[in-house]
Amino acid sequence: MGSAAFLAVGRGLAKQPRNPAVEEELKRQIAAKQIAGGVCGLVGGPIYAVGDRTRHPTVTPMTPDSLFDLASVGKTFTTSLCAMLVADGKLELDAPFTKYLPEHILAKESCAITVRDLAMHIGGFDNSKPYILKEPDAAAFDAALFKKRPVRARGIKYEYACSNFIYLGKIVERLTGLELEAAAKKMLWEPLGMKDTYWHDIPGHPRAVQVFTNNRPAIGMRSDEQARSYPSATGNGATFSSISDMLLFADDLLHRKHFKTAYYDLLFTPCFEKDDSRRSFGWDMSPKIVPNGWSSSTIEHGGHTGITIAVDPVNKYSGIVMTNRTGDWWQGYECRMRLLSLMSGCPVS
């Protein structure tokens, strides 16, 4: 999306006055060396853009139409595609995932891990990644992926594992007959009017944001090692997008405009609560990740590069913070929650 189109979207959303405390908070995070820059906004509110989009080899300013590597926030697209297939009766939530991926080694062992388990990260797989390769090789990647075994029984513990969503992405491809990026365009992005989102590398793109994590990949190249090991899109994320597109996605989640009721209900209904973890289908609902002033019904997802999307259906808050993180991972998470609270007019400590 070009600048003019972006500004038109921005004007359509800008119903709330600008809050100077948001820009000051972004500047504070830059000064604290937590981020190089950031773009953030709520549905119905103004867009804030502060700091540097790139620093090496040249310094360029962050702009509202910057394209960010979403890292694991891209998992929310895989989640949505699966939820649509569930709503259409094409995917069984509580069927063994091996029903759809019979080549997995567990298919011959009466596998009990369900599709729902994968989406909630409670199937028993850990976050080991034996399929990471030096060069993209689909056959070798799949061979290692389908030999991966769980480390515990299903349902005992939440453990975030990217392989869960790689499996879900492959299930989407099996059921739709489309590669994952094509499925996302047809089923999700195009219906929502998202024209600035990509599930592939965008090398040399003039609006691409520099990533400072994961060994600083070249600008416009996916930072995720798993994604770089496969020649096409993988369900664990590694997408690029702009705030205008992501606000269209967040707006739909809040206002339930385009898809079946069952789709939205699945995303917002807690399905697992144990210890300090609370999960819906593909989203985090744990108290520790809810911005101050937002309700316990909030769904949220973060990305390693410095991204957070959150939707609160009770208070009607929905938005995203997009940064190129340079500091500590958890401190970065807290910083993004602070920005969401400030933009929604909630107090922060």
Number of helices: 11
Outline: globular
- Strand-residue fraction? 5-15%
CATH fold-level name of the largest domain: Beta-lactamase
Structure classification: alpha+beta
| CATH C-level category of the largest domain | Alpha Beta
Our measurement of the CA-to-CA distance between the termini, rounded to an integer number of angstroms, reads 37 Å
**Uncertain stretches:** 1-14
- Annotation, overall tally of beta strands: 10
The CATH superfamily of the largest domain turns out to be: DD-peptidase/beta-lactamase superfamily
Number of domains: 2
Task: Determine Rg (CA atoms, Å).
Answer: 19 Å
Average pLDDT metric: 94
Largest sheet: 6 strands, antiparallel
What CATH architecture label of the largest domain applies? 3-Layer(aba) Sandwich
Helix content: 25-40%
SSE series: HHEEEEHHHHHHEHHEEEEEH
What does this structure look like?
With 349 residues, the protein is an alpha+beta fold. It has two domains: 3-73 and 183-343, DD-peptidase/beta-lactamase superfamily (Beta-lactamase, 3-Layer(aba) Sandwich); 77-176, no CATH class. Helices cover 34% and strands 15% of the residues. The chain contains eleven helices and ten strands. The strands form three sheets. Strands 3-2-1-10-9-8 form a six-stranded antiparallel β-sheet, with helices on both faces. It is globular, with a radius of gyration of 19 Å.
Topology:
Layout lengths: L2 H11 L6 H12 L3 E8 L4 E8 L5 E2 L6 E4 L3 H13 L27 H6 L17 H8 L16 H15 L3 H13 L32 H4 L10 E3 L1 H13 L5 H8 L3 E3 L2 E3 L19 E5 L3 E6 L4 E9 L3 H15 L6
Antiparallel strand pairs: 1-2, 1-10, 2-3, 4-5, 6-7, 8-9, 9-10
Helix pairs in contact: 2-11, 3-6, 3-7, 3-10
